[in-house]
Structure formats: C-alpha cells, structure tokens
C-alpha cells in the first residue's frame, strides 16, 4: 500500500506546477523593473517553462516510467518554448501571433484524443485505462456474461462508440483553445509596445483558461459516456447497475 501511494502522482501538485505556478510567473514576473520579482519577459518565460519541464524529468526519474499524458504535456511545453524563441527573434512582434500560438494550443488536445483512437486495438487501450476500467466497472463479470450471450461484436461496438465520443470532446477542446488564442493574442501586432511582456501576460491567461477549456468538455462528455456505457451494458448483459459497477 505504501509503495502504491508512493507511485501515485499527486494531482494537486501536478496542477500547481504545470498550471498555476507558470500562470503566476508569467502574469506577475514579466515586467522589466519595479518589484524584486520583476525579472523581465525572457527570464519569466524561462522560469515558467522550466518548472513543468523539471517536474516531468523528476517524475520520470523517481517513478521509472513514462506517463503518456505527462509526455504530451512536456511536448507542449517544449513547443511553447520553441514558438516563443521564434516569435521573440525580432524586436517587433511578428504578424499572425494568434494563429501560430492557436495552432500549438489546438495540437495538444488533438494529439491526446488521437491516442485514444490509436491505442484502441492495442492490449492497453487508453479508454479502458481512464474510463472503462476495473476501478469503476466489474469488467470480469461483464465480459463473462458477454461471452455467455455471444454478444462480443455489440460489446466492442459500444466501446468503440464511447471512444469516439471521448475523442470528440478533445476536438471540442482544440476548437475552444484556438478561439482562446485568437481572443487573447488577436490584438498583438508589430506596433504593440512592450509586446513581450504583453505576450507573457496573454500566454498566462490562455494557460489558465485552457485548463478549464480542456477539463470542462472532458467532464461533461465523460459523464455522458458513463451514462451511455451503463445503459448499453444493461441491454447487452441483462445485469442491473449494481452488478455492473464495482461495489463502493
């Protein structure tokens, strides 16, 4: 039990380091002068990117395994850094900042969602890891009844339909993320004064709101998927809800 607790990632620490801390750094530390913590836009961006990157490396060293979501997150951090280097390579802001950053923001949820489709036919589908898993459903009993009733094709079709729905929630997140980038960065032009500081502030807002934009569709669609999975499994197996779910 102690080892399992050690291996389990702390979700609050994850949110603090990967979302809240970068948002606060970019929002409050990007000014050149003033307070002691005003370290300028370059160092603020560096610190904001270094925190989640360092945490990802630390997590891998301590847990000796790759978390697919952490890997995608680290990829997004590195991509943010590369885009920032490109955008800051000239004194004035480049045109189409919103488009460039918006595409980056859309890629992350699309990549995550695509992994659910790609792993569907593998021995470890992500859908079964995060939604249809043995901590929620009594899968052993369900699949025993499915085998007895010879309903395996319909059973697989139900899982595939639910996987597609989950992928759809990531597509919604991608569209909303693109909209956020245009909303916050759309007015950033080559004539914007102190544009690097403004850019950092806008990126902080996108990061904070993006966490909600990705999370809200996932929660709503996840709840709907659970509802449809339970209804579909009832029809296929004849079991009631109590026998489908793991006792609490």
TrEMBL record:
Give the UniProt keywords, A-Z: Membrane, Transmembrane, Transmembrane helix
Where would you find the membrane-spanning parts of this chain?
A: 12-30, 42-61, 68-89, 95-118, 164-186, 206-227
Give the domain of life: Bacteria
Family matches, as NCBIfam families: VC0807_fam
Put simply, this protein is called MFS transporter
Q: What species was this sequence derived from? A: Rubritalea halochordaticola
């Amino acid at each position: 039990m102690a080892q399992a607790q050690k291996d389990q990632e702390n979700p609050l620490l994850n949110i603090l380091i990967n979302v809240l801390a970068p948002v606060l750094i970019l929002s409050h530390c990007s000014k050149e002068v003033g307070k002691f913590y005003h370290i300028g836009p370059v160092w603020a961006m560096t610190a904001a990117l270094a925190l989640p990157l360092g945490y990802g490396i630390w997590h891998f060293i301590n847990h000796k395994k790759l978390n697919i979501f952490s890997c995608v997150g680290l990829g997004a951090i590195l991509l943010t850094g590369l885009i920032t280097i490109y955008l800051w390579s000239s004194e004035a802001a480049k045109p189409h900042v919103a488009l460039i950053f918006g595409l980056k923001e859309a890629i992350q949820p699309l990549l995550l969602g695509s992994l659910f489709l790609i792993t569907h036919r593998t021995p470890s589908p992500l859908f079964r890891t995060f939604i249809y898993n043995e901590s929620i459903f009594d899968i052993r009993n369900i699949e025993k009844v499915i085998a007895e009733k010879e309903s395996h094709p319909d059973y697989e079709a139900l899982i595939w339909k639910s996987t597609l729905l989950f992928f759809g929630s990531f597509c919604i997140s991608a569209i909303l993320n693109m909209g956020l980038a245009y909303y916050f960065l759309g007015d950033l032009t080559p004539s914007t004064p102190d544009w690097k500081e403004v850019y950092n502030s806008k990126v902080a807002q996108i990061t904070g709101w993006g966490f909600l934009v990705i999370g809200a569709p996932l929660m709503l669609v996840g709840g709907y998927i659970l509802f449809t999975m339970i209804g579909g499994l009832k029809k296929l197996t004849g079991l009631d809800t109590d026998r489908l779910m793991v006792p609490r």
